[in-house]
């Protein structure tokens, strides 16, 4: 990774404008595209720039790893939480247009081959930021906008928001000094919108570090309430358990590929791998039961009929012995867990069903390493 010393920031000279839309904006109100995650920081950054009379529109990228709006909508105990799209809600609060862009396919390369590596889990934050700012830059050029704003705060994230890595994002995205971070701009070299006087640098901020207090105070000043405070971040890739399941999937397949359904299923259910060639996905509540039900035709699946219990999918290949083991585990997570025997229905991918009577697996017979 290239590291730039604090005393000599990298040259971020802006390349000449080649876009006819941009050339036509001279004298017209300046336009900024704001990366809107749905969190407080990007909301505040957009508001600061709106306050300077700039036309702002938001852009939100759907990678498939987003936390909000999925588990919250599926899981029973999460139902009290508002099921809103936080990016849309943010845009509504700000009174700006939001463009939600599906980047699921393109984003795969970021997750599979991050040039700058992963963070504490399988989060490729530096590559991810570079990717998102690059997509925003392309959007900006296509739509005749002048610069990009993000809610990044210097020193807030260990990987992508350090003084030495923030210029990497500006450079590798091709945004160069058209990338403005209003919440910490005064701690960074001047950008084009500041130099050109499109925005007043003195009205930008110098937030620094991991404390959320300055953001919360500013939110209060603006009267922003009920903003998203997602526990564990905005993205599943920063989640240790999720990353462990993703790594397990790659290791057992022998390849770092994934499809959209794979990464959705990793968000749902209890995952156990009792054998290298199969794992069991067991629903934890009614919501997950319904969700997994949508996948039952693609997997051998089991559910108890003698007692109430979860739906479980077998991911991998399983012989009769494996299916019996899966049935004993599935019975363990249903209301028949203390019963001597539980009857389950096992259905293969062709839709053929049969009954199986098994003794539920005692909890202390399940090795902890089976839980992913
Ligand atoms: S937390 Fe997720 S979405 Fe955010 S920068 Fe890191 S990888 Fe990207």
Explain this structure to me?
With 372 residues, this protein is an alpha/beta fold. The protein has 2 domains: 26-222, 3-Layer(aba) Sandwich (Rossmann fold), CATH 3.40.50.620; 268-370, no CATH class. 32% of the residues lie in helices and 15% in strands. It has helices at residues 20-23, 40-50, 71-74, 86-94, 104-112, 125-143, 166-172, 192-195, 213-222, 240-253, 260-265, 286-293, 320-332; strands at 31-35, 55-62, 98-102, 147-149, 179-180, 270-275, 278-282, 300-304, 312-316, 342-347, 353-358. The strands form 2 sheets. It has a 6-stranded antiparallel beta sheet, with helices on one face. It is elongated, with a radius of gyration of 25 Å. Mean pLDDT is 90; it is low at 1-11 and 16-25. The structure holds iron/sulfur cluster. Residues 123-125, 128-129, 160, 233-235, 237-238 line the site of iron/sulfur cluster.
Average pLDDT across residues?
90
In the predicted model, the low-confidence regions spanning at least 5 consecutive residues are 1-11, 16-25
State the fourth-level CATH superfamily of the largest domain.
HUPs
Strand order of the largest sheet: 6-7-9-8-10-11
Total DSSP E strands: 11
Supply the CATH architecture of the largest domain. Answer: 3-Layer(aba) Sandwich
Radius of gyration: 25 Å
How large a portion of the residues is in β-strands, by DSSP E?
15-25%
């Amino acid at each position: 990774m290239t590291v730039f010393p604090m005393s000599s920031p990298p040259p971020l000279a802006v390349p000449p404008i080649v876009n006819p839309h941009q050339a036509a904006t001279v004298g017209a109100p300046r336009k900024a595209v704001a990366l809107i995650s749905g969190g407080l920081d990007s909301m505040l950054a957009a508001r600061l720039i709106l306050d300077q009379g700039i036309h702002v529109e938001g852009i939100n990228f759907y990678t498939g790893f987003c936390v909000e709006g999925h588990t919250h909508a599926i899981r029973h105990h999460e139902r009290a939480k508002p099921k809103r799209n936080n990016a849309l809600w943010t845009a509504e609060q700000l009174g700006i247009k939001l463009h939600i862009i599906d980047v699921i396919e393109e984003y795969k390369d970021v997750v599979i081959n991050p040039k700058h590596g992963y963070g504490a889990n399988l989060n490729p934050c530096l590559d991810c930021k570079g990717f998102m700012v690059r997509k925003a830059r392309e959007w900006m050029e296509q739509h005749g906008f002048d610069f990009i704003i993000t809610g990044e705060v210097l020193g807030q994230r260990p990987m992508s928001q350090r003084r030495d890595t923030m210029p990497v994002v500006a450079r590798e995205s091709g945004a160069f000094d058209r990338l403005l971070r209003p919440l910490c701009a005064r701690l960074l070299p001047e950008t084009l919108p500041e130099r050109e006087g499109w925005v007043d640098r003195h009205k930008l901020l110098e937030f620094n570090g991991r404390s959320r207090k300055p953001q919360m105070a500013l939110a209060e000043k603006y009267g922003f309430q009920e903003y998203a405070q997602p526990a564990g971040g905005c993205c599943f890739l920063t989640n240790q358990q999720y990353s462990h399941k993703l790594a397990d999937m790659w290791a057992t397949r022998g390849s770092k590929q994934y499809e959209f359904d794979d990464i959705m299923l990793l968000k749902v259910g209890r995952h156990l791998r009792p054998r290298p060639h199969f794992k069991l996905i067991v629903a934890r509540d009614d919501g997950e039961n319904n969700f997994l039900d949508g996948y039952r035709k693609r997997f051998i699946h089991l559910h108890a009929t003698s007692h109430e219990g979860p739906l479980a999918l077998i991911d991998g290949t399983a012989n009769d012995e494996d299916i019996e083991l899966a049935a004993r585990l599935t019975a363990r997570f249903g209301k028949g867990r203390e019963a001597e025997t539980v009857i389950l229905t096992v259905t293969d991918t062709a839709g053929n069903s049969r009954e199986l009577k098994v003794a539920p697996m005692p909890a202390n017979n399940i090795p902890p390493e089976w839980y992913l």
